[in-house]
Amino acid sequence: MTIELEHLSVCASDDQxxxxxxxxxxxxxxxxxxxxxxxxxxxxxxLLQVLAGILQPSSGKxxxxxxxxxxxxxxxxxxxxRLGLTFQFPEQQLFAGSIRREFAYSLRPxxxxxxxxxxxxxxxxxxxxxxxxxxxxxxxxxxxxxxxRRLALATTxxxxxxxxxxxxxxxxxxxxxxxxxxxxxxxxxxxxxxIATHDLDTFFPLADRVIVMDHGAIVADGxxxxxxxxxxxxxxxxxxxxxxxxxxxxxAGRGIAIAPDRLTPQLAAEAIEEALLVRAASAGRGLxxxxxxxxxxxxxxxxxxxxxxPAPAAVEASAQQAQRKQAAWxxxxxxxxxxxxxLLVIGTMLQQQWVGLAAAAVPVALGFIGIPRxxxxxxxxxxWPFLIFMAxxxxxxxxxxxxxxxxxxxxxxxxxxxxxxxNVTRLFVVVIAGYWLxxxxxxxxxxxxxxxxxxxxKKAKLPVDSFALAVSLIFRFIPLILSEWQRFSTIVRARxxxxxxxxxxxxxxxxxxxxxxxxxxxxxxxxxTVAMEMKKVDGKLLSLKSNLLRWQRADTVLVIGGVVCFVxxxxxxx
Length: 574
Ligand SMILES: Nc1ncnc2c1ncn2[C@@H]1O[C@H](COP(=O)(O)OP(=O)(O)OP(=O)(O)O)[C@@H](O)[C@H]1O
Hints:
The structure is a single chain. By secondary structure, this protein is of the alpha/beta class. The protein has three domains: 3-223, Rossmann fold, CATH 3.40.50.300; 224-301, no CATH class; 328-571, no CATH class. The protein is 52% helix and 13% strand. It has 20 helices and 14 strands. The strands form four sheets. It has a six-stranded mixed beta sheet with strand order 8-9-10-3-11-12, with helices on both faces. The protein has a four-stranded antiparallel beta sheet with strand order 2-1-4-5, with helices on one face. It has a two-stranded antiparallel ribbon with strand order 6-7. Helix 3 (99-107) packs parallel to helix 5 (145-159), helix 4 (114-128) packs antiparallel against helix 5 and helix 13 (334-349) packs antiparallel against helix 16 (414-440). The chain is globular, with a radius of gyration of 30 Å. It binds adenosine-5'-triphosphate (ATP).
């Protein structure tokens, strides 16, 4: 199967002007191993996710055997089954209760017969489990980090997709596992590999082709040996050289010339030995030999000509411009935002009538003006479950049991349902106000603003440390839940081969997702609590840094606005 990308671009979800991938043109042929290399943040993982059908291009096309991968905003499922993705931290893509279920989840979309399924599982276990730790009923979470990585690779290989798209597959793997992986890649007879990696030593000797990325664009595309002869190009793209090519460079400085494309230690050693023999022979003849020209020196990298990377200053300027555009709320002092938040929350909680509640919702809604779209999308993800919770609460509250009724003993009280609706709507406005505060205030500022308020209580000898820790954790958790949900839903979609619009999850995948999501949250909560406890010095709260707390005129205006809203809400509360 051939994969072809034509003028493909991907924009950031929160800023359509920020291109993560720029005008990518690429044809990947069956039977090839292609490396994606580039500095961190150059777009390798993004490109892999596009190739895997996880991320939809903003413009341009991705074709598989000349058929489009995306049709009407949905990815074609038949194609999806032919693509397999392993994530940058493959152990994090595990979520089932047992190793058996991990394999079952990966193989289910392929609808295999029991015998074939068993055969593939056994083959993958033989390849990836040399120490026999993959007992089928064992929990994947009882494996070590390296073993979990092996298991994640085993489940992906067992599905046997045509194309394996691997993000940093050797990171965290022991040498024996890396050797095994290389053997499997070499031994594969069909399909192809695209491997995003910083591990040039391992993969350069194996690759047919190397694509160099820089700031979302392809800046070079050629055979590994050719690229080794262009060290300046790799240096410009922020990529080092494989060790063997570095050795060749270093030897050249000492007058020993070997070609820089001897990419395995064995080939390099042979070349060095040969060069030393030549030198010894020359010295013996009393001849002053000049260093021979390096093999292939001055050749150009095959395929595309290298394009200059965007000037760092220009990139910096556009990043600053984007930040300025988004940061109106972020620039405000966290103390002002805390005060506004408290005023609006108290004002909201006072409301007993729908009119007052609607009036309280107006300033909260206004707070979302100018906020990046990705943040709004995060808010929508909170809104949906909350609306379901509201509907259920209202329904249950309205149900009435009337023992005296002659016919049906169950009735529905609209009055009670209505009053519950008022209560949960009030809660809803408070939750949304909390989301606004968390989303518009960097975490450090949030904590410092809170500490500023609490120091007055502390002076009054009130025990506020634990309270500060708890509140800080809660506010840290709201965005964390959303980002973890996003991460897990991507993994579930990649492994479950669901032909869905990006950002959505099948109902049947939710049970599989919930447990690992909760486990991951608990783990993160523990990490965060320890980190925050450690930040306390001698039992004191995190010290205030004046540079994070800068009160400006806009903050005064904001607080005055908050006080006015609060007074109005107090007046209309009944
Ligand atoms: N959803 C997103 N919204 C905004 N920017 C994003 C998003 N996803 C990735 N980016 C940005 O896109 C750029 C490319 O990220 P990507 O993960 O593809 O880089 P990478 O080359 O794989 O890096 P690494 O080698 O560190 O894994 C980064 O600058 C990253 O911050």
